[in-house]
Amino acid sequence: MPTMKMLQGFLDSLEEGVLFLDPARRILEINKAARRMVGQHHAVIIDSLCPTLFAGTQCARECETRGHCSLTPKPGEDGKIQDIVLKGPQGTDISLRMWAMLLPPNVGGLYCAIILRDCSREMELEARVRERWQLGGLIGRSSAMQDLYQKVLRAAASEATVLVTGESGVGKELVARALHDNSVRAKGPYIAVHCAALPENLQESELFGHAKGAFSGATAARLGRFEAAHGGTLLLDEIGEISPATQIRLLRVLQEREVVRVGENLPRRVDVRVVAATHRDLSAMVRRGEFREDLYYRLRVLPLHVPALREHRDDIPLLTSKLLGDLAERYRRPDLRLSPEAMLAMESYDWPGNVRQLFNALEYAVVQSDGPTILPRHLLPELAAGSVTPAAAAPVAGPQLTRYYTAPATDEEEQALILRVLQDTGGNKAEAARRLGMSRTTLWKRMSRMA
């Protein structure tokens, strides 16, 4: 029978931190890895309450509210996983993943064990992966999206007016935001105006402001959006919806860099970077006489086109992973995931509403699902109709993985392979581990050794 000294030696050899609690949540024992993570001495920790060790975290708040360990599973249930951030001994943040397990009755009075894993390096690696497939709110690692990122960054270095085009739902406002955030105006205001939502008789007042008494209901002078965006960026979303009269005034503002409020004669200087966006074909509108040609060319100094989702289908798993993560946080269901069959259905659909439709479809599926896994039957009918049965899907996975992920010969090749698979799966470690043919624990250990 192992002695306590032997058991302590075994616990101290683990990379994971381990704490043993009694039913009152009092800490009875802790191993070396856990002491290193929390940055406190053994004598200070022993006999203290577990919530005090993790004070300020969500885990501690739930524990104190319930009066018992919030991580401890009921018999027959899986334990809850909680991610927390603690201040380390050197004042740096340490990202910890923690879960609990019930212990069988024993003479030592040990009720449960809390297991801690230092995920700081894992989070850092995930951040490195994300940097390669994300620019602000834009997500995608396809060649189409990489080309868009380059154009956005080049345009951000300029002060020229930008015209962003693309179908509804592709993320034109995200492009405008990325332009602002990566420009010298990043610290200035960012103002977005949805021109289609403005009644024609209020467009000029909203954009350029008005004087007191300029029209019925103008009880006070009002700042227009151009003046509000002074020193920053103004997005004119759905620019194709503005009236001919507003088009004339807008052209003058772009030429003279000054606005005249409705009801005034005094011009006011404005320093604004204008970004216009539209899903309409402005050149066709010009030919039909619906949009001023001189304004069109004034806006289209730097054109940026955002591709439709069907034009970069290989980004659908990445987008789905990110959007599903956002929904899991909103609905407080951290274990949400799509089954392989549901993912194939998502990839097979044309998405006429693009990323906005993708998000709405995922939210529908989240609401319809009654467990952590979203199945084809939880999807919208038009998506479920295109789903693939497990039998049909099975032959696809093997050959594709064998073709793209060959066995590495060196540690450097293995590290490069892990990063590549994490990129392909959008940082989804469970899916990455499956594609690599290893457990999630093995993947985490390999990642933790990467420089």
Can you walk me through this structure?
There is one protein chain. This protein folds into four domains: 4-118, 2-Layer Sandwich (Beta-Lactamase), CATH 3.30.450; 130-307, 3-Layer(aba) Sandwich (Rossmann fold), CATH 3.40.50.300; 310-388, Helicase, Ruva Protein, domain 3 (Orthogonal Bundle), CATH 1.10.8; 393-448, Homeodomain-like (Arc Repressor Mutant, subunit A, Orthogonal Bundle), CATH 1.10.10. Helix 6 (120-133) packs across helix 19, helix 7 (143-156) crosses helix 8 and helix 14 crosses helix 16 (354-368). With 451 residues, it is of the alpha/beta class. Helices cover 43% and strands 16% of the residues. The chain has helices at residues 4-12, 32-38, 42-45, 50-53, 58-66, 120-133, 143-156, 172-181, 203-208, 225-228, 244-256, 282-287, 293-299, 316-330, 340-348, 354-368, 381-384, 390-404, 411-424, 429-436, 440-448; strands at residues 17-21, 27-30, 82-87, 93-102, 112-118, 134-135, 138-139, 162-165, 190-194, 233-237, 258-260, 267-269, 273-278, 302-305, 337-338, 373-374. It is elongated. A hairpin with a 5-residue loop joins strand 3 (82-87) and strand 4 (93-102). The strands form five sheets. It has a five-stranded antiparallel β-sheet with strand order 2-1-5-4-3. It has a five-stranded parallel β-sheet with strand order 9-10-13-8-14. The protein is built from 21 helices and 16 strands.
What's a concise summary of this model?
With 451 residues, the chain is of the alpha/beta class. 43% of the residues lie in helices and 16% in strands.
